[in-house]
Prior knowledge:
single chain, 75% helix, mainly alpha
Amino acid sequence: SLARKAIALDESNPAAHVLLGRVHTRTREYDRAVEALRRAVALNPSDPDSYAGLGDALLWRGDAAGAIKALETAIAMDPRLSGEDLFSLGAAYFIAGRPAEAARLLERVTTRNEGNPFIYALLAAIYAESAREAESRAAAAEVRRLDPFFDAEIFGSLFERPEHRQRIAAALQKAGL
């Protein structure tokens, strides 16, 4: 409601559109999210948050290639993107069948010491699929340390496409999560 109020006050405020788009993403209203975030990009094509939000929404809607393009654009503008946005890029690489790129990116994110269990869960899944068992076990142990109540069934629930949910679930299971 606050994002809508901000847009009503100033339709040309890209940050309000980003906020609205991110809210729509988390409520699984992906088409509305993409629409709001494309509007934000159109209003300010040099805003990395607009591209990052768009990439996040496209990821969960099932467009890994579009997510990668948007998120890579955001990183080119601001290499210090949030761990959450970098997680989205790593997940997009994973879904697109680019596990080596996903692992390299997420390994760099872990050096920030943000303590994000989702980064480690995705790494555990990537390592498990890549037959890197020791690294997969270590990443899974870090997930359990950071979040003893980690629920693998919920982890990929934002993916709209069933095959993406199934792929992440199978990889997490293989990782022992």
